[in-house]
Each structure stands twice: as structure tokens, then as C-alpha cells.
Amino acid sequence: MANNAKGLMQKTLIKNGISFYPPTYEVKPINILITDDTISQVSEKEIPTTPDMMIYDVAGNLVVPGFMDCHTHLSQSFGRGIYDNLHLTQWLLTMIENFDLTEEESYLATQLGCIEAIKSGTTTVAEMTTAGPYHEACIQAIADSGLRGDVCMALGDFQEGDGPPPEKNASQLLDDMRDLHQQWHGKYDDRITVRVSPVGLPACTEELIRGSRDLANELGVGIHIHNCEGDTETANAYDRFNMSEVETYEKFGLLGPDCQLVHNIWLNDHDKELIAEYNCSVVTCPSTNTKVTDGMPPMPDLHKLGVNIAIGCDGESSSGTYDMLQEARLVALLGKVSTMNAAMFTAEETYEMMTKNGLEAIGFDTKVGEIKPGYKADLTVIKYPAPHLIDETRLLSNLIYSATGGDVLSVMVDGKPLYWNGEMTQIDEQVVLAHILDVMRKGKHLIP
Ligand SMILES: [Zn+2]
């Protein structure tokens, strides 16, 4: 706990905001008292101030829970825009062949992704690092940015298609995972947590999937895994195991309420029932699914079965964005057009996918994703009014269908500003951008 000079806990007041009040999501005034890093009072009325309070007057702007991006590969920010126009299978091969960052580049690329995420209102990332031997450089960049990070590293021990052979076997990878957990889990006042992450069945053996479940149980953490993303990859996995990916995960004991399944495109009806039966959460990444033509994510079917749906921006090399508002808008629109039902995924349901459903998916012990006493002060402030954000009675609809990350004014995690009134506070953005531009211009090795 961070005490002030007199040994008392820091009091912070967010005053003069407006916010959505669930379950109706009516817009009303909001004032939020934060004690140390946790919300201690939420009131429509003014909260009396004391001389020791840190006061942030948000001047009538909209305060929402910080967005929870439940699947990222932040170091792929260096690959944005250079692997366009490729179907997933070709994109994967091209990126694996060419994406070869140094430790410093891995840190910088992740830092770049963090800046974009923070500036568009994200406060939590569920990061699966894909930075070869430099996973820890990525995690350090997340920790230094001030974001809350539930992190893991992509584990694969099976040669996928024409890809490179694996460098380590299942047992070595699981040892690395255990070391990573020991090194990072609970660090930075619990802002960084670690979970186990076999990358996905197309690149994993039975030994690694079963071992991942055993390790997750031993460490008391969850599982994060890609599921049924590409048509070819899903078909290849079926041929290897003579059953679907989800059925194989069930057979190997992987499924459970602590399991986050990412993508979920090529599901049969039995797969969908299994995901619901085992109470898994799914993370949908529609920008990637459309840009690299993974396919149409059948989220409406899973929604009807009561499955918890969260949203992820995935890696920028495939999605092109870490803007959760853009991603959420696409979830809603694809839900509607894929079912020809304009009522599929209401603004309220979509808003929950980018906030409180993220908590259910990640399963933190610490509470985030809502503005309530006892929850961590992870908050995002959005400029209001604006030409496309006008009139409180339709503001939630405006937020989902009309807003972008560019409307975000301020962001805090654990009651500490990471971005305030348009300025990054933890990171010197201009210095970082100049450094990154220099590295990128020399980075010919990233271009296929
Ligand atoms: Zn991914």
C-alpha cells in the first residue's frame, strides 16, 4: 500500500464526471473517491474534500471503467502495415520468417503498443508474448507503462505446416513457464499476473496441452490459448487427433472456467456446447478475423448458449489496431449482420464485453471492470459532449457505434494517471517515438 508522507493512505477524488449506472445504464453525475489504489466511494452528489486529497476535476466528461483488452501480442506493433493482404496461413508463415526482433526492439515494440492501448482507453491487457527469447522484455515494457497485465508466453512444441521446427520440447517449455511465473506473478503490487499459454493445438503436442493444464493447476492460474482460428490450421489439427480442437482440449483435460479460448471461428455445434458446458470464456478478435480472413466468428451462437464473451485486439500485425472501441464496434456489427438480426449484441451487451466480461474471462482476484467500491481505480475519461457523442439519453449507443480511441482524454490504473488530458504521464511519448522511428527505419529485416 502506498502511504503518503504522514503514513496515511492517499486519497484521490475524481469529481464532476458523468457515467453509466448499471443495470439500466442511465447516465448520471459521478464523483469517485479513491483510497490508495481502490475505489472507496461512488456518489452522484459532491464528495466533501479534505486538504490532503489529490483532486482531478473531469469537468463534465464521461467516466467509464478502463477497457479490458483480453488478447494482445503487443510486440507485433512493429509489424503493423507490412504484412497486409495475406490470408492467415500465409501471414503466419511470412511473419514467423521475418519477424526477428532484438531484445531492445521487443521492449520498444511492446512500449509502442502500450502507448496506443493506453491512449485509446485500455487499462488491462491479456498479453501472449510472441517475442522469441525476449518475453521478459515485453513484460517489462508492460510493467513500466503502468498498464495492468495478465501475461503469458506462446508455447509451441510441434512444427506447424511449413513453419520452423520447435526449439524446445514440452518439458523445457513448461519449465520456462514455471520460471516466468516465479519471476513475475504478483509483481508491481499485483499489477502483473502470469497464466499458462500453450499457443494453440496446431502447434502443440498432447504432452504440452496436458502438461499446461497440470502446471496451471499447480500454480493456481488459468489457461490462455488460441482456438480454431484458421480454416487450414483447424483442419490440420482435426487430421492429427481425429476430432475437433475443442474436443481434443476436452480429452486432454484442458477445458474449464479458468480457460480463455481466443478466436473460436471454426466451431461445430458440439464444440459450442462443450465451451458452454465447461464454462470457458471466449475472446473474440474481429479485426484480425476479418483482415487476415480467418472467417466469421460465431459469437451470437455462443452468446445464446450463455458463454462469457470478452474482446481482444490481438496483434497489430494482423489486426492493425489496439483501439478497443473500434474492436467493440466491429463485434456488434458482425453479430448483427451474421445473424441478420439488428438486435444481436446491444450497445449495453457490447459495453459489458469490453469491461466487466473481461474480469470474468481473466478471473483476477483483484476486481476491475466496474466502477464500484472495492474495485481498483482503473478508469477511462472520454470527452463529452462531442459532435458524435451528444445527449445523455443515447450516450451508450453513441459510445459503441460512433466513438473511437481518439475520444479518450485520460486514463488511470490503480488510481494513478497514465494519460491525463492528452499527455502521457509515465512514458515520454516523443522520446519513445523518435527512438522507435530510428529503429524501424533500420529494420529492413521485418520486411518480407
Ligand atoms: Zn493471437
What does this structure look like?
- Strands 5-14-15-16-17 form a five-stranded antiparallel sheet, with helices on one face.
- The chain has 448 residues and is of the alpha/beta class.
- It has a domain at 75-362: Metal-dependent hydrolases (TIM Barrel).
- Helices cover 37% and strands 21% of the residues.
- It is built from 17 helices and 17 strands.
- Helix 9 links the parallel strand 11 (259-263) and strand 12 (281-284).
- The model has no long low-confidence stretch (mean pLDDT 94).
- The structure holds zinc ion.
- Zinc ion binds at residues 71, 73, 128, 226, 262, 314-315.
Distance between the termini: 48 Å
Structural class based on helices, strands and sheet pairing = alpha/beta
**Low-confidence spans:** none
Which strand-content bin applies to the residues? 15-25%
**Count of helical stretches:** 17
Give me the CATH superfamily of the domain at 75-362: Metal-dependent hydrolases
**Overall 3D form:** globular
Strand order of the largest sheet: 5-14-15-16-17
Secondary-structure arrangement, i.e. CATH architecture of the domain at 75-362: Alpha-Beta Barrel
Main sheet?
5 strands, antiparallel
Radius of gyration: 21 Å
Total number of beta strands: 17
CATH class of the domain at 75-362: Alpha Beta
CATH topology type of the domain at 75-362: TIM Barrel
Q: How much helicity do the residues have?
A: 25-40%
